[in-house]
Amino acid sequence: MTYEHILFESKENVAWIRLNRPEKLNALTHELSGEALDALDRCAKDPEIRAVVITGEGRGFCAGQDLNDFQTDATLSVADHLRQNYNRLIQAIVDLPKPVVAGVNGVAAGAGASLTFACDVRIASDAASFTQAFVKIGLVPDSGGNWLLPRIVGYAKALELSITGDRIKADEAFRIGLVNRVIPADDFLAELAAYAQTLAMMPTRAIGATKKLMSDAMQMTLAETLEAEAVQQQQQAGSEDFREGVNAFMEKREPRFTGR
Ligand code: LHQ
Predict the structure, then answer these.
(1) Where in the sequence is the domain holding 191, given as residue range(s)?
(2) 243 pLDDT band (50/70/90 cuts)?
(3) Within a domain: 255
(4) Mean pLDDT, to the nearest integer, of 34-52?
(5) Within a 13 Å sphere around the CA of 5, how many CA atoms are in the beta-carbon half?
(6) How far is CA 102 from CA 96, 108, 164, in A?
């Protein structure tokens, strides 16, 4: 697939997915989400890719659904649009057994905010902001916003943000635990790249398994989780990265993980 609405690049074990409709603050369309889904599939299949960054071109991260689509085409079914596009996109990010970093360079609104919530880590520029904009146009949060946001910031804050649509800046997002790190805009891309690079050099299989275990554990009992950990640890203990990690520790050197 050739891409027109995203930029895709893979270098040094990190894949970069850049939303590329800067004049519309990277608002989402059917085409853009199809391309992003295709890129995520490539990330899943390519063993050389060991970390993924999703970021936006221009001054915005993503302004959510392109509202022009729903103004001009009254025949579009919103439910079908969500099922075919954003639901699959969110699920693909959450299910990807590799770390996914949202590089939140600017405003993240509506489904664009949900997109960041689906990622494993949110690294924000100090120019970033977040708004659950849905309510401002008479909608409920979608693209997993009702499931993901309470798990990140807690129920009370998630509900408040969702029913007010308040736009919060990066420092407030950091204060409530929505973003993991805030970086001055001038240093943003370099520090984001360094962060992703560090993740890409880690034991990728263990990270993928941790994503699944912790997500599953949110709906499991302690006893079920303990058992799932035992089963999963057995598998990880058979990995090359486990052997390398233990050897490096014994030999008092830095480990060289390969993701195998
Ligand atoms: C946009 C958009 C946009 C088109 C900025 N669309 N052009 C799912 C299924 C079905 C239906 C609907 O929704 C959904 C899920 C959703 O995502 S609902 C939420 C949709 N998003 C929004 O409601 C956010 C709308 N945008 C805004 O509130 C503001 O633009 C934000 C707060 C994001 C940024 O504000 P500013 O920094 O002041 O920028 P701006 O408003 O001046 O926008 C810059 C340009 O981008 C402007 O175009 P123009 O030609 O005038 O320069 C905007 O019209 C355009 N743009 N968001 N979602």
Answers:
(1) 6-200
(2) very high
(3) no
(4) 98
(5) 18
(6) 14, 10, 24
Q: For ligand 1, atom 35, name the residue with the nearest CA.
A: 107
Residue 75 has pLDDT above 90, yes or no: no
Centroid of ligand 1 to alpha carbon of 166 (angstroms): 14
pLDDT tens, position by position, 150-192: 999 999 999 999 999 999 999 999 999 999 999 999 999 999 9
Residue of 198, 209, 196, 204 lying closest to 254 (CA atoms): 198
Select from 159, 175, 200 the last residue of a domain. 200
Phi, psi of 7 (to 5 degrees): -110, 135
Ligand 1 atom showing the smallest separation from residue 25 Cα: 46
Confidence (pLDDT) at 76: 74
pLDDT for the residue 149: 98
Burial (CB < 10 A; 0-12, 13-18, 19+), residue 180, is: middle
Which of 80, 100, 121 is closest to 40 using CA atoms?
100
CA nearest 206: which of 66, 95, 98, 71? Answer: 98
What's the domain count of the chain?
2
* Ligand 1 pocket, Cβ-based, cut-off 6 angstroms: 24-25, 27, 63-68, 70, 78, 81-82, 107, 109-111, 131, 133-134, 137, 139, 142
Q: Is residue 56 one of the residues assigned to a domain?
A: yes
Q: Domain boundary at 184, 200, 216, which?
A: 200
Q: Which band of pLDDT confidence, cut at 50, 70 and 90, is reported for residue 12?
A: very high
% of the chain at pLDDT higher than 90: 97
Give me ligand 1 centre to Cα 196, in Å: 28
Q: What angle do the packed helices 240-250 and 204-217 form, to 10 degrees?
A: 110
